[in-house]
Amino acid sequence: MAASLPAPFLTRVHYYDSPTRYTCAYETGVDGAPNALVVIGGLSDGPHTIPALIKIAPRLDPANGGPNYSIFEIRMRSSYVGYGTSSLEEDVVHIAALVKYLRSIGKKKIVLCGHSTGTQDIMEYVNSDKQSIEPVDGFVLQGPVSDRQSLELLRSTFPDYDFDDTLACAKQFIAEGRKDDCLPRSKVPPIFGNDPISAYRYHSLAAKGGDDDYFSTDLDDDFVKRVWSSFTKPFLVLHSAEDEFVPESVDKAALIEKWRNVNTLMSPLSGVLPGANHTLDSDEAQKGFGDKLVEFLSTI
Q1: Origin, by domain of life (predicted)?
Q2: Per-residue pLDDT of the chain (300 residues; tens, 9 = 90+)
Q3: What sign results for the dihedral spanned by CA atoms 258, 202, 249, 49?
């Protein structure tokens, strides 16, 4: 098992002002690069939990023909097991604080790169009306998966578990003014392990129209047009052909095309990565993603 772990690598730690004390970001790659790629992970992710993205850092080095970016991994209150008691809205405040810091140290171009639920953070970022939101220069959405439809897939994996009962419990807590209370452990689906999860966050992930529900295939057209038209900078969208969290019935290419028709700022490089699972584990997936990312960043 140890042989499959990533090799040791060097990183630079940046402390910066944010709503959470002692918040820091970890920089990997070119020391002194003028541009920053900010990586935002999914549920239970945090710095260094997405090895596939870190492996791409050398390709951003101008010495290797790259576009001269370093990678910043953000540690938020929602990182690791904190996701269950946090929200996209809270994440956006933390991300904006890092962007502000990166501007203060002279970064010229800043691109947000979301993985999995990190792509929902990006959707929230571009649709936020908060005055504190800092502008960036581009966006990458890798693995934009519907958590609600992913949970539906799990019904066959856990046939004895009552997912409807969990959602009903979350709704009851919210109706009683207890949205921030964590659900009883007996009500938390096995996929979440022993992680604490509030009524609000479970409802946000599992209910149609929940705050996390940006990518489901059955969303109203007006909503889809509103949220995707909010991008005012170039953005790259990459689905994985073999994403284990997407129902087989979903036509990923058609879904991306639907989003593209709303906003022409979507990069023509957007599409479906062949041979890729959700976390880009294979060499083919990592090379395909790296090729697209380097080319996209070169156009910003």
Answers
A1: Eukaryota
A2: 344 777 888 899 999 999 888 889 999 999 999 999 999 998 888 888 888 877 899 999 999 999 999 999 999 989 889 888 999 999 999 999 999 999 999 999 999 999 999 999 999 999 988 767 899 999 999 999 999 999 888 887 888 888 999 999 999 999 999 999 999 999 988 888 889 999 999 999 999 999 999 999 999 999 999 999 999 999 999 999 999 999 999 999 999 999 999 999 999 999 999 999 999 999 999 999 999 999 999 999
A3: positive
Sheet holding 35-40, edge to edge: 12-15, 24-29, 69-74, 35-40, 109-115, 138-142, 235-240, 271-273
Query: How far is CA 79 from its chain centroid?
Result: 11
Q: Which has the closest alpha carbon to 227: 239, 238, 237, 241?
A: 237
The model carries a pTM of 0.94
Length of the chain: 300
What are the start-end ranges of the E strands in the chain? 12-15, 24-29, 35-40, 69-74, 109-115, 138-142, 235-240, 271-273
Name residue 87's amino acid.
Answer: S
User: DSSP state, 62?
Assistant: G
CA distances from 196 to 74, 75, 92 (A): 21, 18, 21
Would you state the structure tokens that stand for residue 38, as one six-digit string?
Answer: 């900010």
Tokens 């993985």 correspond to 115
Give the pair of three-digit tokens for residue 250.
């979903």
Domain ranges of the chain: 12-146+215-299, 151-206
Nearest C-alpha neighbor of 214 from the set 259, 249, 254, 171: 259
Q: Which CATH number fits domain 12-146+215-299: 3.40.630.30, 3.10.620.30, 3.40.50.1820, 3.40.190.80?
A: 3.40.50.1820
